[in-house]
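Feature request, filed as a ticket because there's no other form

It would be nice if the structure record came with a short human-readable summary line next to the tokens. Right now we just get the raw output. Example of a typical job, pasted below so the devs can see what we mean:
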Amino acid sequence: MLYDKIPENHTLKKISQAVDFSFINKLLEDSYCKGFGRPAKEPELMCKLLLLQHLYNLSDEKVIQEANLNLGYLYFLGVNPETILSDKSLLSKFRTQRLGETTLDEMIVEIVRQCVENGIIEGKSVSIDATHIEANTKKKTPERLMKHLGRKIIKTYEEETGQPLKDVPEAPDYKELEDHKEAKTVMKTYLETVINQVELKTTTKEVKTNQALQKSKEILADPKFINQKGIRSLIDEDARVGRKSKTQDFYGYKTEFVMTTDERIITSVRTADGAYMDGSYAKEMLAETKESGLTVQEVYGDKAYFRKSILDDIEGLNAKAYIPVSSLVYRLDESEFTYNKDSDEWQCSQGNITVNKKRFSAKRKEGGVREGYKYYFELNRCKTCPLHDVCAKKSARRILTVGLNTADFFEISQYQKTDEFKEKYKKRASIEGKNAELKRFHGLSRARGYGLLSVSKQSKLAALAVNLKRIAAILSSFSNGFIRNMMIFNPKIVTITF
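Raw output as currently delivered:
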């Protein structure tokens, strides 16, 4: 009777109408021992508490407090109104010890699959994008980190042996040095001295001290550390410095999403450190999207995703890519050259046409190999061309050097100049709003914990939460007839009667 007071259009009631969460118990049954100890709380209940937490951006303590008092929360959890929920510590243990990344991926896929099956999602297009998450700690300079590492080695040794460590130099005051490079050199010398002196006094019995020594050596051996590209915090060792733009950077992580452009439902999530290159997980994320039952026909992304490997992955799904050409992978002055795909010929601005091509391979100065084609223009036309001395300074005729994929990219670039592409590409903007929603209302602007695993779980739980909120909004826009049809054809999905 108490639950009858909850309005039919309440978000949590709509979610319960659309999603069957019972699959969670089956999904996590292997993580529990059925015949040992006290009976565990249902995984479904614990997952729902985590979803409420991210849906309303609450702490562990606050979500338990609210859930004990809020009828809507209790209804969503599927418990009696007089039920007293477990302590917040149990929620934390469940998240860290029972709930894995793969489990969260499977939850996202299953909920999307249910939406596809029930006609909530019908769109054939998806967008992919990445957003940054600030770390839950400040980045430190290498000098400060080396000072902390030295202190940690000394403190660990003294605590483990019960003896004071003598003859170890005090940490220099690097802040007095104006030259940043000199300060790093001084602190590196100090840390190496501490490591060497402590190593001489340490035996195999001092396990923790040896671990601290080994960790310090590994950090110093990484060239990225001194260049301020590697580890920047001992509290969160996985966070890295990344770029928001050419002039602005951030310290933390990147989370990448695939989302349906029409219904704005997230279908896949991946998280990496701040230095992550957008699109590295595109193949597996698109495969996960397909696994949920969606038939992907269009994929939208920004210039960061214009790479041959990603374009090939999209083509492998029999989908069309709507991704702007990136100047980083396609460098050609289109005011100077045009391409004929049928004859495989390039034409210059003066009307001369290439008559031959050769594949080449050359070593790069910075390492690696550059491969491509050299197209040779017709010799006699070049000799009589008024621009010959400008175009062919070192040879009798002009030679156009292009990458292996330049010809294919040229054709793509021509299509992207059409009104059809420009109109279609407007659909990509929907994912920007979803990124803003996750950050502003669901706590994804900053990491709650430390480490890649913690931030990855936070990202996926936040994605699940916004998906549920979006599902409720879609259902609210449908007529009651749609809900009744869901009850007839999927009686297990719907728990509310009219």
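Something like this underneath would help us a lot:
Residues 2-120+464-489 form one domain.
The CA atoms of residues 187 and 367 lie 32 Å apart.
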